[in-house]
Specification:
Blueprint lengths: L6 E6 L4 E8 L2 E9 L11 H23 L8 E7 L3 H18 L3 E5 H7 L15 E6 L4 E8 L2 E7 L5 H11 L7 H8 L22 H17 L3 H32 L3 E5 L6 H14 L2 E3 L11 H12 L17
Parallel strand pairs: 1-4, 4-5, 6-9, 9-10
Antiparallel strand pairs: 1-2, 2-3, 6-7, 7-8
């Protein structure tokens, strides 16, 4: 442990959640998230509305994070922010604020890759949660990404498998939209899946070579399945909603687990971690825990509040970079597309 306290302010604004977190020596003191409900009306995130909401939220969210951590801004050692990937307008708000605050306080500025942060969230000091040893495999699953990453150390990561079309979060949300569920549909589908029969309906799994994923074909198959059944029974969705959700979720989980099994076998690595918003899904968590006994894996599942977009994961990366004195300059710019 350091001989003195190192305080890092993390700022996350990649999509539709404005978040700020204060970390001290690896422990989270505060993690404030302001979610945007306005997008529910449109069935998806509207970039212009998201960036406008970030402008309204970022000052009070940062103020609240400092307040809950019981420190002043003058005690901060560095400011970490999400550089990308994400919605450019949203990223610009967080980037500009972080740069200005760091300049005003005359402290280091630290850029963070959002997807790396989802993986490194496992290194937040949290009682009851183990940290994966290097090397390990990480599966990042969210609304915009589905990846299998070979993690050699904190800052050496290689994507060895990824989606060639829709991400897994999109598969849940688009399937939910077909069923008439509100956006975001993933959490609602998860709740209903727990009440349904996962083997009630069978959906064909896409055949994709190697470790890559594809979910667009599954989405289309679900659409045709629903349309065909509605022709015969207009009340089909209403009468079988829980079973449909359970069957869709069961298929998606099998697709993910099949690729993880191949990745583990090819690399010889049996330490498996997950991250990203979809890792909050109860079915995926259960499948991963079951795989420990079945395949001899050791699995790592993050604390629920560190799965969706949050600034705590940005802060821990900032802390790890601070220890290595890896800082950004004031010339750094937000990037909508940013690879691991």
């Amino acid at each position: 442990m350091p001989t003195q306290n190192i305080y890092i302010l993390g700022i996350e604004s990649s999509c539709d959640d404005t978040s700020a977190s204060v970390l001290c020596n690896g422990k989270i003191l505060s993690n404030v998230v302001a979610s945007q409900k306005i997008h529910e009306v449109y069935g998806g995130v509207v970039p212009e509305l998201a960036s406008r909401a970030h402008l309204q939220n970022i000052v009070p969210v940062v103020h609240e994070a400092l307040k809950r951590a019981n420190i002043s801004s003058k005690e901060l050692n560095a400011i970490a922010f999400t550089q990308g990937p994400g919605l450019l307008g949203s990223l610009l708000v967080g980037t500009s604020f972080a740069k200005s605050l760091a300049l005003g306080l005359q402290i280091p500025l630290i850029d963070v890759n959002h997807m790396q942060a989802h993986i490194l969230a496992h290194y937040i000091d949290e009682e009851g949660f183990n940290k994966p040893p290097f090397p390990f495999l990480a599966m990042t699953i969210s609304g915009g990404h589905t990846q299998i990453v070979l993690v050699t150390n904190y800052f050496e990561m290689e994507v060895i498998g990824e989606t060639i079309d829709d991400a897994v979060g999109e598969a849940f949300d688009k399937s939910g939209k077909i069923l008439g569920l509100n956006y975001p549909a993933g959490p609602e589908m998860d709740k209903r899946a727990q009440l349904g029969n996962p083997k009630a309906f069978k959906f064909t799994k896409p055949k994709v070579d190697g470790l890559n994923f594809s979910f667009s074909g599954l989405k289309t198959a679900i659409l045709y399945f629903i349309q065909n059944n509605l022709k015969e029974n207009p009340n089909f969705i209403e009468e079988h909603l829980n079973d449909i959700c359970a069957s869709i979720q069961h298929t998606i989980i099998n697709i993910l687990m099949d690729k993880l099994k191949i990745a583990s076998k090819q690399t010889g690595i049996n330490h498996i971690a997950i991250g990203g918003g979809v890792s909050a899904n109860s079915g995926i968590r259960s499948a991963l825990k079951a795989a420990e006994n079945k395949y001899g894996w050791t699995t790592y599942i993050p604390k629920f509040e560190y799965t969706t977009d949050n600034a705590a994961m940005i802060a821990i990366v900032g802390y790890l970079k601070y220890q290595e004195q890896i800082f950004a300059t004031q010339n750094i710019a937000a990037k909508a597309r940013l690879k691991i």
